[in-house]
Write a structure and sequence with these properties.
By secondary structure, the chain is mainly beta.
Length: about 240
Amino acid sequence: MITRWKFGTAYFNGEPAKPGATIPPAADIRSISVEDTVRDNEIRWVLVNRLFIADRCVLTGVSWDNLAASNVAVGYNGISIDGLLYRIRLLKLGETDRAPNEWEEALKEAGDSDAVWHWRNQFFWGQETSAAGTGRVARGFTLPRNWNHWTPSSRAAYIGWRPALEPDTVHPEPELIGEKLLMRTNTGEAVAGRLADITDYDFLLEDAVRIQAVGSRKTPAVKRWPGKRAAVEKDALVMAQQYVF
């Protein structure tokens, strides 16, 4: 089962941008990033195989070279979003249209509907150079699996940036009691708090704050108690992250 999440904001030249914003052709692109959440400008993500993938191009009119210059294209550039650590990069889309790749894996897990991924009329950049060495790979526009390639300096309103985030995760153990954690469940819930205890069935949190409510039809896995306490079902936990700030 996939879950959807909403956090983080795309920034262009140090200013927050609404998801899907198009950068004008004449604009001087100095920096592109994902940073702390700005209300009403949140990025929506689909969690597939422990990878957060933006559900659309968060910026269009940007070249592959622009993304590489901002350290969000390849490699494992570490960033902080709302006090949590991630590694940001582009998806691996395949050097050819038949090569195994992360985008195909995501479509198999989450389906290929435009309502989920917003691929229609939008190419998005991937990491690879095409096998023919003629440009950087992009996917989308007419069909979700459509494969194409463009020169890395290309800028157009129909080519954009779909970021992917690899979260730094921890396994809640007794050694982490007293530490502040964010816990995400397979019901689409997220709750932050200090780990107070671990029982046979639950992780118990103090000073608990709900970050995201139920996002599916499943029975909630987070039980809230008086005094800002909460219990998270062990069997429902998808991932836990430790706050670093």
